[in-house]
Amino acid sequence: MTNHFVDMKNADVIFIMGSNFAENHPVGFHWVLEAVEKNGATLIHVDPRFTRTSSVAHKHIHVRSGSDIAFLGGMINYIIENDLYDKFYVANYTTAALIVSDDYKFEDGLFSGYDDATRGYKNESWQYKTDKEKKALKDPSLQDPRCVFQVLKQHYSRYSLDKVSAITGVSKDDLIYAFKTMGSTGTPDRSGFFAYAMGWTQSSTGVQKIRTGAMIQLLLGNIGLPGGGVNALRGHANVQGATDMAVLYHDLPGYLGMPAPDHKDLATYLDKTTAKAGYWVNKPNFTVSQLKAWFGDAATKANDFGYDWLPKMKGDHSFQQAFVDMNQGKIKGAIFPGQNPAVGGPNTTLMMNALSKLDWLVVKDFFVHETADFWQAPGMDPSKIGTEVFFLPAATVVEKSGSLTNSGRWIQWHFKSIDPPNKDVVSDLDFAIDLGKRLQKLYEGSTAEKDKPVLAMTLNYGDDPDKFPENVLKEINGYAITDIVKDGKVLVKAGEQVPSFVVLKNDGSTACGNWLYSGAFPKEGVNNTARREREKPGEGIGANLKWAFSWPVNRRILYNRTSADLDGRPRSDRKKVIWWDAEAELPDGKKGKWVGVDVPDFKGDLPPGTPKLKDGPFKGIGGNDPFIMNTEGCGRLFAANLKDGPIPEFYEPFESPTENAICPVQNSPVAKVYKTPENILGKADKFPFVLTTYRLTEHHLSGVMSRNLPWLAELMPELFVEISLDLAKELGLANGESCTVETARGKVRAKACVTDRLKPMTINGKKVHQVGMPWHYGFKGIATGDTVNTLVASIGDPNVFIQESKGFLCNVRKGV
Amino acid sequence: MGISRRGFLKLAGATTGAALFADFNVAGPVRAYAMELPIKGAKETPTICPYCSVGCGQIAHARDGKLINLEGDPDHPISLGRLCPKGSATYELTVNERRQNKVLYRAPNSPKWEEKDLSWAMDRIAQKYKETRDASFVETDADGNRVNQTRGITWIGSACCDNEETYLFAKLARSTGLVYFEHQARI
User: Fold this and answer.
1) Residue B184 and residue A242: Cβ atoms within 8 Å?
2) What are phi and psi of A635, to 5 degrees?
3) Is A486 exposed, middle or buried (0-12, 13-18, 19+ CB in 10 A)?
4) Chain A environment of B181 (Cβ under 8 Å)
5) How far is A531 from chain B, CA to nearest CA, in Å?
C-alpha cells in the first residue's frame, strides 16, 4: 500500500475492484465506512459478484471476471477525453512530458520488439528519446505527439465506451458513473484510492492491472495524498513482511535483487544493477551492509564481502516452476513452514503428483494439513509413495515474540504471552537457527569453496531463545562495526545500532540485514515496532507516527512531496501532508526544511525548486522531484521494465468465452503456459461458464488456521458454488442441490448456492454466465470439501508468474 | 473525559474507592460483575492478529502459563478493539485439541505416522538437507559462470511467519545456495 488503513478515512472516492474488502478485511473496512459516513465519500465496488462490500457501496457494478484492463483502460480514455486529469500534477510530477523513442510502436496488438520464437519482448525501443548528451527530451506543454501523454492518449483512444461495455458486460451508464466519480478526484482538494486484492493479481495480466490502476492515480494526482494511493489488501498477516524479507526467488531482502550468472563479482553486480539516479544510487551501501550482516567477519573487502558465495540465477524459479520441476524429479527435498500447497497451490493434481516425487518433505504447522498428509490423500496409495515426511509442530503467535508487517507497511511487534505446550513445539525462528547450526556442524572442517557460506553464515543470537526475535530485529535494523564518523564527529560508535539507513556504508564498516527496516530498532533497548502511542482524536490525519514503525523511516504516506506545489506550499489545505518551512531551524544552524503531519518522503532539507542534484545520496533528484526512488524523479506513465509492454493492453484470459475485441492478439503474448501433463486448457464449447474463485470471512486461505477451529468450521462447514437464478433454471438446479463443477483439469463436488448475487451478462453480444467458488477446502480438518484449485490451470503472469485463478472456463452439471 | 476504555480499566485497577466509580457512574452490581471477570488478575500481553493483513491489535490473557482469553485491543489505532470472526477465534488456534504438538515422522512407503522427538527429527532433516545439497549443487553454469546453486531443495513459506523468521529463512536459504525459494505472495 502507498497509504494505510487508518488513512482511508480521508478519501472522497473509494474504488474497490478485484477485492471483497468487507468480508476479507472486515476490521480494516470500518475505515472505508468512516470515510463514507464522516467524509461524505462515494464508494464504488466493481466485482463479478454482489458481496457484503457491494451491499454498503453507493454502486455495485457487475463486471466480467478477467476484463479489468478493458474497464480501467476505458477509464483512462474517459479521464483524458473529458479533461478530468490533474494537469499540474501530470505535467510536473509524472513522466508525461518525456518524449518516447521513434522506434516505439504498438501495432496489431503487439508492442515493438516482439520475438515470436521466445514469446518475449526486447525492450530497446521502449525508451525515452534523448539529445546528444543523453538527456531525455521533453515537451512540458504535453502537445508533442510522441510525448508519453500523447502516446498514452492515443493508445487508450481505442477503449471507447461502446467497446469497453461490450467486453466487460457493464452498461455504458454504469461505466460513465464510475469513470466520472473517480475522475472527480482529479483536483488537488479531493482524493480517492483503489483497493484491490487477488481479483486483480491472479491473472495472466495481473501486474498490468495494478499498473493501470497506478497510472490512473498518477493522472488524477492521487498518489501522495491522504485518502489516495493504490492500496493492496494482502491476504496473510505478513505477506508484506515476507516479501520485504525476500522469501521470493528473484530477490534479496530490501528489494536488492538476486545477482545473475554474468554478474561475476560484486563490482559488476553493483555496476549493472545500481540506478544511475534516484535514491537507489545507494544500493551499494545496502548490499555490502547486508553481506556483512549475513557473513560477519568472514565478509571482507578482499573476498568481495562474500558476494561470490551467493547463488547467481536467471529465469523462472517461481512457486509454479518449482512444482513443475519437482514433478519431473529435479527437486528432491522440500521445506514448507506455514505453507499448504495441496490446497493453496494452483492445479492441485500437479501439486499432488509433484509432492509424491519428493525424497523428503518437511512441514511445519499447527495442524496436520493436506500437504503433510498428501501420501494418504483420497486416491493415493501410501505403499507406492517413497517420500519421507516430517511434521514439526509450530508455536502460535501468542507463544513467541516477533514483528508482523501489515498491508499498510506498519511493522508491529507482538509479545510472547505463554510458552508453547512442550519443548518440541518451537517457533519457526528457533527452527531456522537450529537447522542452520546443525548444518554448520555437519560441514565443520570442510574447506570446499561451496561450503564456505554455510560455515560463515552468522547465527549467534545468544543463548536465550526468548531473546532471539529481538536480536534478529536488531541485526535487520543494522549496527556499526567500526565507529561511523562524519566531519570528524563520531555519529555511531562501533557495536551500536544505526539510527537509520542513511549512515550505511559500502566499505564493510556497517552491517544491516534489510535497509528498509532500518530505524525499527535504532538504539539498544528501543524497539520502535513495539511503540503504543496512539494519535489523539483530531490531532492529525491518522498517521499515528508514534504507533509501531512504518517503512521506510516511519513514513506513512509514500510520495507525500506531491501534496505540495513547486514552491513547497500545500496544493490544498484539505489534503496537505508536508510543506516547506523556510524558517525552520536545522541542527547545524541552517534554515529551511520540510515539515508536516507525516514524515516527509523526501530529502528533508532540499528546498523546492532546487535543480537536480549532481551527486550524493539523492543524485538526480531536484527540489520538485517527488518520486525519489525513480531515476526520472517522477511517476512513470510509461515503463520499460515490464515484460509485457510499457503501457497496459487488454488481453483475454487464457480461457475465455469470447474473442479479444480490443486487439487481434487473443491472450497475453508473453504470459507463461507451464508445460506439464496436468496443464490442459479448455474451450468455451465444452466449458461455457466463467469461473472465479474467492475467499470467505470465516475461513483463512488454505484453511489450516480455520477449518481446524470448531467456531469457524461450524460457521462455514462445506463447499458451495454460487450460481445465478438464471443459470440454475437453465441447469435445472435447486438451491442446496449437489452438483459437479468441471474444467479441463479436473472436477469438484459442491452444493449449489442459487443466488441473485451473480447475473448473466452480455459479452460482445453473447450471453455469458459467471459462477463463483470459495477455494478454502481440503480433505483434512473439521470442515472438509473438494479442493477448488484442482480446477485451476498452470499459467503465469509474465512478470511475476502468479496463476490465473480468476476468470477461467468451467462447466456445471447436476449431480456428483 | 478523554479516557479510553483500557485506560479506564487500568485506572480502575490501580485505584480503590467508590468515589472513582461514582465519577464514572458505574452502578454497584456492574462493578461487582467487573471484579469477577474471569480475566481478573490474568497477565495481559499485547499481540497482533495472525490472520489477514489489517494488523488488528489483540490482548492475550494468561494465567499459570495457560492462555485463558484473547480479545480485541481497544487501544489499537487500526482496530479500536474490534475483531472479525477469524480474529475472534484466534484463542482456538492455540487452545485446540486438534493441534498436533508432537513431532511426526512418516517413513518411505509407510501407511502411518510415528511420533518422534524434535532433536531426532532435526538431526535427520539436517542430514537430508546436506545430502541433497551436496548431490544437487551446481558450481558453474554452461558458460563457466560461478552460480553456486542448490537445485535439489525448495523452501516455500511463509507469509504466516514473522519478519525475523522470514529474514532468517532468507539468510539460511541463500547461504546454502537455494534458488527455489518462495512464499504465498506469488500464488
Assistant:
1) yes
2) -75, 135
3) exposed
4) 247-249, 317
5) 11
Distance from CA of B19 to the nearest CA of A (A): 27
Residue A440: alpha-carbon gap to chain centroid: 34
Question: A70 vs chain B: nearest CA distance in angstroms?
Answer: 23
A246 chain-B contacts, CB cut-off 8 A: 170
- Residues of chain A with Cβ-Cβ distance to B161 below 8 Å are 238, 242, 337-338, 428
Q: Do B99 and A468 lie within an 8 Å CB cutoff?
A: no
CATH number of the domain enclosing A179: 3.40.228.10
Domains of chain B: 1-36 (no CATH), 42-99 (2.20.25.90), 103-186 (no CATH)
A477, with CB counted inside 10 A (0-12, 13-18, 19+), is: buried
End-to-end CA distance of chain B: 49
In order of A114, A121, A182, A642, the CA distances from A118 in angstroms are 9, 8, 39, 16
Of B55, B166, B179, nearest to A245 by CB-CB distance is B166
Å from A815 to nearest chain B CA? 31
A428-442 vs B163-175: helix crossing angle, rounded to 10: 20
CATH number at residue A738: 2.40.40.20
Q: A281 phi and psi, to 5 degrees?
A: -60, -15
Q: For residue range A83-117, list pLDDT tens digits in order.
A: 999 999 999 999 999 999 999 999 999 999 999 99
Tell me the H-state helices in A220-304: 239-244, 266-273, 283-295
Q: Which of A180, A198, A232 is the last residue of a domain?
A: A232
The string of DSSP codes covering A691-706 is: EEEE--TT--TTSTTT
Type and span of the H or E element at A770: strand A770-774
pLDDT, tens digit, 9 for 90 and up, residues A150-162: 999 999 999 999 9
Lowest mean pLDDT among A284-293, A516-525, A586-595: A586-595
Question: Does A160 reside within a domain?
Answer: yes
* Element holding B122 (H helix, E strand): helix B118-136
Chain A residue with Cα closest to B100: A367
**Integer Cα distance of B106 and B87 in angstroms:** 33
- Choose one of A208, A232, A256: the last residue of a domain: A232
ipTM: 0.98
Helices (H), A114-189: 148-156, 161-168, 172-183
Task: Give A-chain residues touching B139 at CB under 8 angstroms.
Answer: 449-450
- How far is Cα A799 from Cα A205, in angstroms, rounded to an integer? 9
A to B CB pairs, distance under 8 Å: 477
Domain region containing A796: 672-814
Which tens digit of pLDDT belongs to each residue from A386-414? 999 999 999 999 999 999 999 999 999 99
What is the distance in angstroms between the CA of the first residue and the CA of the last residue of chain A?
Answer: 43
Which of A408, A419, A436 minimises the CB distance to B172? A436
pTM: 0.96
CB contact under 8 A, A469 and B66: no
Measured between CA atoms, the residue of chain B closest to residue A404 is B162
Min distance B137 CA to chain A CA atoms (Å) = 8
Residue A234 gets the label, from left (phi > 0), alpha (psi -120 to 50) or beta, of beta
In chain A, how many domains are there?
A: 2
